[in-house]
Specification:
Elements (H helix, E strand, L loop, with lengths): L2 H15 L19 H13 L5 H14 L4 H7 L2 H5 L4 E3 L2 E2 H17 L3 H8 L6 H11 L22 H11 L25 H9 L10 H14 L7 H10 L4
Length: about 250
C-alpha cells in the first residue's frame, strides 16, 4: 500500500471507531462520569495509570478508586486527611496497590496546590514539536515529594526508553478535541499536533503490518518512529489514528 492508500484506509477506521460508542467499554468512560475540569483530569489520570490488562477489569478497578474518593476526585485530593489515606488498603489493580494510590493522591495534591495543576505542569515543559520532554519533567515533579521506590514504575519516562503508553493516552484524552464527544480537549495550551500515539501491543503490531513502524520493541524509539509516520498522515491531529490502530488490532484482528 502507498502512503496515500494507508491514509485512506486508516481514515475510514478512525470514522468507524472514534465515536461515542467507543466510550462504554474503554477506560475513558471513567473521566466521562464527571463535568468539573479537575475531576476529569484526576479521574482520567488515575484510570490511565492502571490501563493495562483486560479493559473490563481496568474499568472495574478505576470505579473502585472513584468510590474510595467518594466520587469526588478533586475534593478528595485536596481535602483528604491522613486517616482517609490510611483507610486505603490492599490491591487496587494488579501491581498498583494501596501504597501507590496513597502516594498518587498526595502527589496530586502537591501538584494542584504548588504547581497550578496537571495542565500547568505539562504546558510549562511542552516543546514546540513534542511532549516527550514534558512527560520526563512531569515525572520529576510527580515524585518530588517522599515516595516508595516501588511506585516509580507506574509513570513512564520516554527519555529513559519507555513508550509511556498510559500517560500518552491520558494526554490524548485531555488535549485532543475530536468533536465526537470521546476525547475531551479541555487543555487548550497544548496543540494536538505534538501528541504521541499511545503505543501498545495492538497499535504496534498493526503499525508494523502497515509498514508504519519497523522497530520491533514498543519503546521510546519506536514511539518516535511511529509519531513521524502518523504526522505525515495528519500533521494537525496525528493521534486520531490511535483509534484506527487500536480498533484494527482489538476488534478486527488485523
Amino acid at each position: 500500500m502507498t502512503l496515500d492508500e494507508i491514509k485512506d484506509f486508516l481514515d475510514e477506521k478512525v470514522e468507524k471507531y472514534n465515536t461515542p460508542d467507543f466510550i462504554t467499554d474503554d477506560p475513558i468512560s471513567i473521566p466521562h462520569r464527571f463535568s468539573l475540569k479537575e475531576d476529569i483530569e484526576i479521574a482520567g489520570f488515575l484510570a490511565s495509570t492502571i490501563a493495562w490488562g483486560k479493559r473490563s477489569m481496568i474499568i472495574k478497578s478505576a470505579n473502585t478508586i472513584m468510590s474510595i474518593m467518594g466520587d469526588s476526585p478533586y475534593d478528595f485530593v485536596m481535602e483528604h486527611s491522613e486517616d482517609d489515606l490510611a483507610k486505603i488498603e490492599g490491591s487496587i489493580h494488579r501491581t498498583f496497590n494501596s501504597i501507590d494510590l496513597r502516594f498518587f493522591v498526595a502527589s496530586l495534591r502537591n501538584i494542584y496546590a504548588n504547581h497550578g495543576g496537571l495542565e500547568a505542569v505539562f504546558s510549562k515543559y511542552a516543546a514546540h514539536d513534542s511532549l516527550l520532554y514534558a512527560i520526563h519533567k512531569f515525572k520529576s515533579v510527580f515524585f518530588e515529594i517522599p515516595h516508595e521506590r516501588r511506585t516509580i514504575k507506574h509513570i513512564g519516562d520516554p527519555l529513559a526508553g519507555s513508550a509511556a503508553k498510559k500517560i500518552n493516552m491520558f494526554l490524548r484524552w485531555m488535549i485532543r478535541d475530536d468533536s465526537r464527544g470521546v476525547d475531551f480537549g479541555i487543555w487548550k495550551e497544548i496543540s494536538p499536533s505534538i501528541l504521541s500515539c499511545p503505543l501498545d501491543v495492538h497499535s504496534g503490531n498493526v503499525a508494523r503490518k502497515l509498514g508504519l513502524l519497523k522497530r520491533k520493541q514498543n519503546d521510546a524509539k519506536a514511539l518516535v518512529e511511529l509519531d513521524a509516520c502518523l504526522r505525515k498522515l495528519d500533521a494537525a491531529d496525528p493521534v486520531k489514528y490511535d483509534f484506527a490502530l487500536f480498533g484494527l488490532g482489538v476488534y478486527e484482528g488485523f
